[in-house]
Write a structure and sequence with these properties.
Largest sheet: 2 strands, antiparallel
Helix content: 55-70%
Strand order of the largest sheet: 1-2
CATH architecture of the largest domain: Up-down Bundle
Radius of gyration: 20 Å
Structural class: mainly alpha
Distance between the termini: 67 Å
Oligomer: single chain
CATH topology of the largest domain: Four Helix Bundle (Hemerythrin (Met), subunit A)
Shape: globular
Number of domains: 2
Strand content: 5-15%
CATH class of the largest domain: Mainly Alpha
Order of helices and strands: HHHEEHHHHEHHE
Number of helices: 9
Number of strands: 4
């Protein structure tokens, strides 16, 4: 066969997107801490890129609440607070709950696998918001509504960042009826009821902030 001029490649990603992903990863994995100053020159040197994609990436991160930019003064990783975390989780609860409800029209086999995983997360002895979000996020990907996916992504990034540094508890004793409803609805594939239960579990009034452990 004729030798191609260049090797086959997958879809080419823009440098600004790769830069965004790199800085996002460093923020959500805790490499870059809340309040840490972000100098464009330093980030560009770290990633081996020019300042232009760095500037674009930081501006995009700012729209997601992950970076705080004050023009001509500073750019830093956003601060964290339990109030912001509760607000973020409540909005995610609405979107992820809607995604669970929409599983009614999804392929049965795929939806059933996700339902079983979500049941396991909900009925765990000590369920966490991490586990609940991990189990509901695949429903967003399964959703036929692209707006649900588009709206969820920045909130999921923000939740990952906030949950890296803060925690909230799901007081299952107080939420026994909701947990039971979620379990039974998922078992019976009653998607509307299951989605409603997910929204309730992630609502501000359902969650209890966990005080930070003092560091020595």
């Amino acid at each position: 066969m004729p030798v191609p001029d260049r090797p086959a490649r997958g879809p080419r990603r823009l440098l600004r997107d790769l830069t965004f992903d790199s800085v996002l990863g460093a923020i959500t994995d805790g490499t870059l801490r809340p309040g840490e100053r972000l100098l464009e020159d330093d980030v560009a040197t770290w990633l081996g890129v020019s300042k232009t994609p760095v500037k674009e990436a930081l501006a995009r991160l700012a729209t997601q609440g992950l970076v705080h930019i004050q023009a001509n003064r500073f750019t830093r990783v956003a601060a964290v607070s339990h109030a912001d975390l509760l607000d973020t989780l409540e909005l995610l609860g609405l979107l992820h709950g809607e995604a669970v409800r929409s599983a009614e029209t999804a392929p049965v086999a795929e939806a059933s696998v996700l339902a079983d995983a979500l049941r396991a997360a909900v009925t765990a002895p000590a369920p966490s918001c991490h586990d609940l979000l991990d189990a509901t996020a695949p429903f967003v990907e399964l959703s036929a509504n692209p707006l649900t996916r588009k709206a969820s992504e920045p909130l999921e990034n923000r939740a990952a960042f906030l949950l890296r540094h803060l925690d909230v508890a799901l007081p299952v004793a107080d939420l026994h009826d909701v947990v039971t409803e979620a379990d039974e609805a998922l078992r019976d594939r009653r998607w509307v009821d299951a989605g409603r239960a997910v929204t309730t579990l992630l609502a501000r009034d359902s969650l209890a902030p966990v005080p930070a452990t003092p560091t020595s």
